[in-house]
Sequence to fold (265 residues):
Amino acid sequence: MTRYNLMQIRLFIFFSLVTVIFSDLNAARLSSSSYALSDSLSLNISKGMMVGYGHSFSQPFSKKPRKYKKPKQRKYDFRYLEIGIGPAVWQTSHEPLMENERNAIHFFVEYGDMLKPLSYVAGVNFNAAFIQEGYLLEPEYYFFHLKYSPSRKWYNWPIWMNIYGLAGATYWQASLTNTGFGGATNNENLIEEDNGLGLITGAGVSFEFFNFSLITQFTYILGIGQYEAGGFYPQDVHVGSAQINVMLSYRFFLSGLQWRCPTYK
Fold:
């Protein structure tokens, strides 16, 4: 073997060793970087999971969701104030032999609820006059009574018709005038006045159209006053009367005008 050949063999072995060494170094470097990359990725993923876990589970327990209250719905209001007036188409005095001279006028104000049968009524009955043998009796009645309408609870009853009964108290004032005063004796008076408490009762029926009502009512009023009436001592005089009143009324609803029928109908 020549010297040249030996040199070639030596160079081949040297370069082979250098190539093996460099390949080993590159493989070690790549493996370390891949391990570092995988460690960093796993660390980031675990951190993300921890952050997600804390966000999804811990937040609802630390902060409760806000609750919104629903606004209360106001019930439909059927409370009302009713005002009515009308004449007595027929009347008679409780005092025997007293004749009708002038018909009464009945005025009232009523407060109630269309969903309830009981209501409250106040008013005045005035302008009535009765006469007997020259003595003119002019009573005036201020009253307050309860009004009970059972038909408001009758489901098969027509909504435009209402029947009722009433009972209460009155404060009356009445004057007794001697219309023949002039040639009278000394123990006769021109005008005598008295007042006191009495009772009122009756029944009626009303026909309703929207907020208007046409009412027919039988009214019975009791009261007793004391007048001399040409005598020497006071004597009892019945100042009450029985009447049939025909009235027209209008109903004001406290929540405004309502053209809707009550739900119980």
